[in-house]
Amino acid sequence: MSIHKSVLVEETVDALKLKKGMVVVDATLGGGGHSREILKKIGNTGTLAAIDQDEEALKRFAKFTDDAKEAGGSGTKMTNVCLIHDNFKNLKNILADLKIEKVDAILADLGISSDQLEDESRGISFQSEGFLDMRMDRSKGITAADVLNTYKEDELKKILREYGNEQYANSIVRKIVARRKEKPVTWTSELVELIGNSVPSAYKHKKIHYATKTFQALRIEVNRELEALESFLSQAIETLKPGGRLAIITFHSGEDSLVKHTFRENARGCICPSEFPVCRCHRTPKVKLITRKPIAPGEDEISKNPRARSAKLRVIEKI
Ligand SMILES: C[S@@+](CC[C@H](N)C(=O)[O-])C[C@H]1O[C@@H](n2cnc3c(N)ncnc32)[C@H](O)[C@@H]1O
After folding, report:
1. Which end of the chain is more exposed for a tag (fewer CB within 10 A), N or C?
2. pLDDT of amino acid 78
3. Which one of 222, 254, 286 terminates a domain?
4. Does 143 lie in the same domain as 108?
5. Three-state DSSP class for 287?
6. pLDDT tens for residues 5-37?
7. Spacing, Cα 51 to ligand 1 middle (Å)
8. 114: exposed, middle or buried (C-beta count within 10 Å: 0-12, 13-18, 19+)?
9. Per-residue model confidence as pLDDT tens digits over 153-173
10. Is residue 164 in a domain?
11. CA of 95 relative to ligand 1 center, distance in Å
12. pTM listed for this prediction
């Protein structure tokens, strides 16, 4: 069972304009909340390719589809679900393996699920004790402890500033570097303590916990989240059928700005200087912006699910 509460479900599924028989990619299966709604819309004749780099998310959803099959399918024939353990940055290869050329709709609900956040052994949360791992895909890659103990001081500062907008990046990193000379930083509680000793006391009494930004920045680095997103977006746009829709839900400003700029860039036509009498660039827009401003959750959703407060949904349609 997943404990994850899906965000902006109705808004996202509506925006994707799903119909029976469609081929859809959920690039971030997670707790499967969006996928379950997608399945209801595309029905027995549709196909859902559900991707997650976390094998545990896929195992949970496989259990759901098996149970549904046993219970008579609950209106959905579950043979049309393909569960794929991979990074969505490999979208084109994933679809080629499935012999799917073009798709009708794609969704990515970025970041981590509550199942991952609450799993102490992942060390993603500063609220529980755990080894500083932070990998979504525990079968490969480096851990947050590796980042903290091996990266150069300047690299660490850049990560905290760019991925966390952490104003005390310099002092936090100085403490980390001094500490790792004596002993590696390995546990969440050690990192929280180091951060606590590096920031002014007023910072510790803010609404947002003083370790939030550092933990977020490390997680983004460990999982190479922005690089994966950038590569995924261009493949997703290429993969859509004309009229097909792409919906992205983001949770922090770095992600949202990447999505916003990529969408705008692909929605632009001619870029010739205005003094040119005729167009020479022959550039045509690839997509239409469906949401000029992002869709945000309402008060009601935020009160039921505080994690939704920073969510932003942007949608485009392939031309
Ligand atoms: C916010 S959760 C998705 C929740 C889901 N929409 C739901 O309704 O339950 C994000 C999920 O995406 C996965 N994920 C994040 N980045 C990924 C990537 N680059 N490739 C594949 N999966 C990714 C995470 O492992 C996590 O399970």
Report:
1. N
2. 54
3. 222
4. no
5. strand
6. 999 999 999 999 999 999 999 999 999 999 999
7. 8
8. middle
9. 999 999 999 999 999 999 999
10. yes
11. 18
12. 0.94
Of 187, 222, 257, the position where a domain reaches its end is 222
Query: What is the number of the ligand 1 atom nearest to the C-alpha of 225?
Result: 19
Q: Chain-wide mean pLDDT for the chain? A: 94
Q: What is the CATH number of the domain that holds 217?
A: 1.10.150.170
Domain identity same for 59 and 199:
no
Q: Give percent of the chain with pLDDT exceeding 70.
A: 96
249 Cα: distance to centroid of ligand 1 (angstroms): 11
94 and 16, same structural domain? yes
Q: Phi-psi category of 75—alpha, beta or left, where left has phi over 0 and alpha has psi -120 to 50? A: left
Which residues approach ligand 1 with their CB closer than 6 A? 4, 6, 28, 30-34, 51-54, 57, 87-89, 109, 111-113, 136, 228
For residue 71, what pLDDT is reported? 60
Gap between the Cα atoms of 39 and 45, Å rounded: 10
Which of 116, 136, 140, 312 most suits a substitution to test ligand 1, by most atoms within 8 Å of the C-beta? 136
pLDDT per position as a tens digit, 29-43: 999 999 999 999 999
Confidence class for position 67, pLDDT limits 50, 70, 90: confident
pLDDT at 74 > cutoff 90? no
**Burial status of residue 25 (CB atoms within 10 A of its CB: 0-12, 13-18, 19 or more):** buried
Nearest CA residue ID for atom 5, ligand 1: 30
Q: What residues does 155 pair with on adjacent strands?
A: none
Q: What total of structural domains would you count in the chain?
A: 2
The conformation of residue 5, written as its DSSP 8-state character, comes to P
What local confidence, expressed as pLDDT, does residue 76 receive? 44
Nearest to 286 by CA among 315, 309, 253, 316: 316
Report yes or no on 130 lying in a domain: no
